[in-house]
């Protein structure tokens, strides 16, 4: 098979750029997603518990937080944190700003997943815990949270996969993750179509691997579900 010079050049660019893109994905994109998701889950649990509490100011505060984050674009939130806060005397480096932005986003969206999972547990479970002398915190920690975790794992896994793709927005605030590396290579090679197809392919690989892990987790959890 014969290739013209342009085709050979494109193939060479794709081969030479694959490892730098993959390296950026493994060094920045995946860790950024993991750290943000972990912190976001902690925030989400606190927000979910605040939403179902009987303390009205706490309920209102949690509702306002969720409403603001869910009602505004993530890219705007990142710009406010990274480009806007310096006007108020708060300057953050790009990576820290990205982690804060993604954490707030994950916390708001997944708090609804966790809240729904907690509310899906029958009230009889609470009453059974109280009947054996457990406190509210003990029932929550020993009875409710373990059951709610099994319910929430599938949607939370989907949220994490979405976050991996959303980390590409960090390029807009100069974080040197995979998508920004692709932009830099594109600026020097002038082949945007093929470069962005290649970076999309790498994101697809990451998400496919995560989807397989999710499927295995769901199968393991099914063993503990009573039919």
From TrEMBL:
Keywords: Amino-acid transport, Cell membrane, Membrane, Transmembrane, Transmembrane helix, Transport
Residues annotated as domain ABC transmembrane type-1: 26-214
This protein's name: Amino acid ABC transporter permease
Membrane topology: Multi-pass membrane protein
Subcellular location: Cell membrane
Pfam (any one): BPD_transp_1
Domain of life of the organism encoding this protein: Bacteria
InterPro entries: AA_ABC_transptr_permease_3TM, ArtM/GltK/GlnP/TcyL/YhdX-like, MetI-like, MetI-like_sf
Database matches in Gene3D superfamilies: MetI-like (1.10.3720.10)
Major subcellular location class: membrane
Family indicated by similarity: Belongs to the binding-protein-dependent transport system permease family.
Membrane-spanning residues: 28-52, 64-85, 193-213
Organism: Clostridium malenominatum
SUPFAM superfamilies in alphabetical order: MetI-like
């Amino acid at each position: 098979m014969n290739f013209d010079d342009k085709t050979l050049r494109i193939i060479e660019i794709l081969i030479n750029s694959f490892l730098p893109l993959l390296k950026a994905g493994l060094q920045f994109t995946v860790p950024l997603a993991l750290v943000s998701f972990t912190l976001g889950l902690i925030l989400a649990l606190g927000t979910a518990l605040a939403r179902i509490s009987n303390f009205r100011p706490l309920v209102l505060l949690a509702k306002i937080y969720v409403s603001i984050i869910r009602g505004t674009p993530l890219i705007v939130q990142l710009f406010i944190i990274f480009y806007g806060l310096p006007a108020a005397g708060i300057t953050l480096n790009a990576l820290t700003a990205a982690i804060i932005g993604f954490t707030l986003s994950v916390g708001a969206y997944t708090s609804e997943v966790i809240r729904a999972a907690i509310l899906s547990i029958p009230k009889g479970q609470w009453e059974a815990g109280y009947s054996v002398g457990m406190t509210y915190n003990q029932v929550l920690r020993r009875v409710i949270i373990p059951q709610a975790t099994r319910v929430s794992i599938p949607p939370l896994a989907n949220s994490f996969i979405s976050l991996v793709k959303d980390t590409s927005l960090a390029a807009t605030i100069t974080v040197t993750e995979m998508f920004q590396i692709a932009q830099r290579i594109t600026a020097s090679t002038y082949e945007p179509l093929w470069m962005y197809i290649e970076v999309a392919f790498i994101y697809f690989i990451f998400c496919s691997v995560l989807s397989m892990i999710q499927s295995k987790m769901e199968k393991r959890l099914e063993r503990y579900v009573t039919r």
